[in-house]
Design a protein that fits this description.
It comes from Brachybacterium fresconis. The protein has 190 residues and is of the alpha+beta class. It has 7 helices and 8 strands, in the order ββαααββαβαβαββα. Strand 5, helix 5 and strand 6 form a beta-alpha-beta unit. It starts with 11 loop residues before the first strand and ends with a helix.
């Protein structure tokens, strides 16, 4: 049986954050900061209106986790279970054995370590809660803040892909893939 995010015990508390599953009504709470140019610079989806944002948000609710700080949502992320690559005859054993993480932060809280705290909790959720064997995260190489978070939570840079990502600026940017094996994560905490 595959464990889903909804099967886990929520909320999850860190030193300063409370994490919980995202809900439809959270779209309006994150919209004021999610739509800011400095946030939209690095997100995959650009919504022009709250209604568009709501539709996009609702489609991702199955993998959505939000982080609350001092009673308001300051981070939104995903822990998306994926199948690991395998040869065709091993596909069943590879099903759901990997997770992809992603996160977006309210710029007003950046610089306090809350992004790292949030991402570390997402990593723990994937490894301990979903029992995956490998966790990945991707970003534009120019997104230095996200890269620093990946480094701080112990992820390893596994690949830099030259001009593989078309940015909404019209430029082809380098992409990066970071990853960590569950056993490495557990050993690093021990």
């Amino acid at each position: 049986m595959t464990i889903a995010l909804t099967d886990l015990a929520w909320p999850v508390r860190t030193e300063r954050l409370q994490l919980r599953l995202g809900r439809a009504e959270d779209a309006a709470a994150v919209w004021p900061w999610y739509r800011l140019p400095e946030v939209q610079e690095w997100t995959t989806t650009l919504s022009d209106t709250l209604a568009d944002h709501q539709q996009w948000w609702d489609r991702g609710l199955g993998d959505c986790v939000v982080g609350e700080f001092e009673g308001r949502i300051v981070a939104a992320g995903k822990v998306q279970r994926q199948d690991a690559w395998s040869q065709a005859d091993m596909a069943e054993q590879a099903r759901g054995r990997q997770a992809e993480l992603g996160w977006v932060l309210d710029p007003s809280i950046q610089g306090r370590g809350l992004g790292t705290e949030f991402a570390a909790a997402l990593l723990d959720t994937a490894v301990d809660g979903l029992d995956v064997r490998r966790v990945v995260a991707e970003c534009f190489a120019d997104n230095v803040a996200s890269r620093r978070v990946m480094e701080k939570i112990g992820m390893r840079l596994e690949g830099v892909f030259l001009e593989e990502s078309l940015h909404r600026s019209g430029r082809w940017l380098d992409g990066m893939t970071w990853a960590l094996l569950a056993r490495e994560h557990r050993a690093g905490r021990g």
